[in-house]
């Protein structure tokens, strides 16, 4: 991959069927366990209770992804997954995806976004805390490989509530 300029403007869009190969490849490259399969991604692309986002910049159409789940009757949305291609990390792709996930959840009337993270995932924890997520639970042996997790949450205020 050619290096991405630090100044490239990151855009976030909804994933399409044509993104499936990229989604599955990034999932494999980013996570050693608890992965979403191709069939699961395919279902999520068509589902009202899931939102799959893709980040791009300039001529690079796939730099990262985020998956958000919604539940009928619940005002709590769940950020299930977020990942940036290793070559494009540290340039704002994850932040743009997180911001987009929050605004989609807000627009759907959600009041809170929750997520789980491995306790040793310093890069992810730093971005979540910078965005205002706070730790609400310890999740011992939460992951398939036995690793511990933390649950984080952030209240999603509307622009009117923020003013
Ligand atoms: C977490 C992740 C999505 C962040 O994506 P990104 O595109 O690099 O995000 P950004 O560029 O917007 O921000 C990265 C921030 O993490 C910080 N960071 C990067 N590596 C870090 C590390 N090892 N320790 C602490 N902070 C780190 C950067 O300094 C940056 O913060 P800054 O903007 O204040 O400088 C990316 O690291 C990733 O894909 N990781 C693998 C998949 C993963 O673990 N996902 C989360 C599962 S819960």
From TrEMBL:
Keywords: Acyltransferase, Transferase. GO terms for molecular function: acyltransferase activity, transferring groups other than amino-acyl groups. CDD domains: NAT_SF (cd04301). The keyword Transferase applies. Signal peptide: none annotated. Pfam families: Acetyltransf_1 (PF00583). Residues 10-157 form the N-acetyltransferase domain. The keyword Acyltransferase applies. InterPro entries: Acyl_CoA_acyltransferase (IPR016181), GNAT_dom (IPR000182), YpeA/RimI_acetyltransf (IPR050680). This is GNAT family N-acetyltransferase. The lineage of its organism: Bacteria, Pseudomonadati, Pseudomonadota, Gammaproteobacteria, Lysobacterales.
């Amino acid at each position: 991959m050619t290096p991405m300029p630090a100044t490239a403007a990151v855009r976030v869009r909804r994933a399409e069927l044509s993104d499936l190969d990229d989604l599955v490849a990034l999932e494999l490259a980013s996570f050693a366990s608890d992965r979403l399969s191709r069939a699961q991604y395919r279902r999520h692309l068509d589902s009202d209770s899931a939102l799959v986002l893709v980040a791009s910049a300039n001529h690079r159409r796939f730099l990262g992804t985020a998956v958000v789940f919604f539940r009928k009757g619940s005002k709590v949305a769940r950020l299930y997954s977020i990942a940036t291609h290793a070559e494009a990390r540290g340039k704002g792709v994850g932040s743009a995806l997180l911001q987009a996930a929050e605004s989609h959840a807000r627009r759907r009337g959600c009041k809170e976004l929750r997520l789980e993270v491995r306790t040793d995932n310093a890069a992810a924890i730093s971005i979540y805390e910078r965005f205002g997520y706070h730790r609400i639970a310890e999740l011992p042996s939460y992951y398939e490989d036995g690793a511990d997790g933390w649950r984080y949450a952030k209240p999603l205020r509307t622009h009117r509530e923020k003013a």
